[in-house]
Write a structure and sequence with these properties.
The protein is mainly alpha-helical. It folds into 2 domains: about 35 residues; about 210 residues, MetI-like fold (Orthogonal Bundle). The longest helix is centred in the N-terminal third of the chain and has 36 residues.
């Protein structure tokens, strides 16, 4: 009986040990995949806290160095950095709002009437390299005297944000039961009323996720802004790029500016990660 009891006690431990081993292995794989990204970010932050001599020194020192905040002070003293932040906020928020205003009804139409051709056309427009649009846009906006304006940048950023919003929202709106649409139509709602009163409240997690992703993509966009932005509408990625000159590269201020650009996006992602995960997994399993 003692041997049998011992066998019964030790038997269930093997599956538990297997689960622990799989969990540890998965955690190690995640750490290995994230290590390059975390290392680059750590290198950027430490570079922003070094003097010019230490920043250009070889071999680089990653842990032991004299900490200085002069690089951050130089960024604000030598550049209108707050103006660049405001420009990026206006463009990112404007393109996100415009993308939601156009993308949500478009996604509802595609999901409601199964317009696969329109969805494919939007996807193809997104796949086309953005640089293909630059020359026609520049000629158009120059003729309309819209170069170096917020409106031009917001319209161009829609090329990235609008297809993203539409394709993210199609999946959520397809999971709204058609019976709810039919019931609302029977009760006297128009198609706009069905969209606004029935569909939108049911897919709010998806709207939140699409809005956040669109804002982040617009905030980080460089290609369109470098051509169409000017002294009054220069965004943060373009401002950092302009810190590189032919005489020398000031690695400290450059890293400080890059850190201040990256930190808001990271903080926003950490604050709303629950909404992003909820939105991206909402309706993933169809019943």
């Amino acid at each position: 009986m003692v041997v049998a009891t011992g066998a019964l006690r030790t038997g269930p431990r093997r599956p538990a040990l297997g689960r622990v081993a799989r969990s540890v292995g998965f955690a190690l794989l995640v750490c290995a995949a994230m290590l390059p990204t975390v290392f680059v970010f750590y290198w950027m932050v430490t570079l922003s806290l070094k003097t010019q001599v230490e920043a250009a020194g070889y071999p680089p020192h990653f842990f032991r160095f004299a900490v200085t905040f002069r690089n951050y002070a130089d960024v604000f003293a030598k550049n209108p950095f707050l103006q660049y932040v405001w420009n990026s906020l206006v463009v990112a928020a404007g393109s996100t709002a415009a993308g939601l205003a156009v993308g949500l009804p478009a996604a509802f139409s595609i999901a409601r009437w199964r317009q696969e051709g329109l969805a494919l056309a939007i996807l193809v427009a997104r796949i086309i390299p953005g640089i293909s649009y630059l020359i026609p846009w520049y000629i158009l906006f120059r003729g309309l005297h819209m170069v170096d304006t917020y409106q031009a940048l917001i319209l161009t950023h829609l090329v990235v944000g609008l297809p993203l919003i539409i394709w993210v929202m199609i999946g959520f709106l397809e999971n709204v039961p058609p019976d709810l649409h039919d019931a609302a139509l029977i009760d006297g709602c128009s198609y706009y009323g069905v969209f606004w009163r029935v569909a939108v409240p049911l897919v709010r997690p998806g709207i939140m996720a699409a809005a956040i992703l669109s804002f982040i993509f617009s905030w980080n966009n460089f290609l369109f802004s470098v051509v169409l932005a000017g002294p009054h509408t220069r965004t943060l990625p373009v401002a950092v790029f302009n810190m590189i000159n032919y005489e020398e590269i000031s690695w400290g201020p450059l890293a400080a500016a890059a850190t201040m650009i990256t930190l808001p996006v990271i903080l926003l992602t950490l604050l709303v990660q629950r909404h992003i995960v909820t939105g991206l997994t909402f309706g993933a399993v169809k019943q």
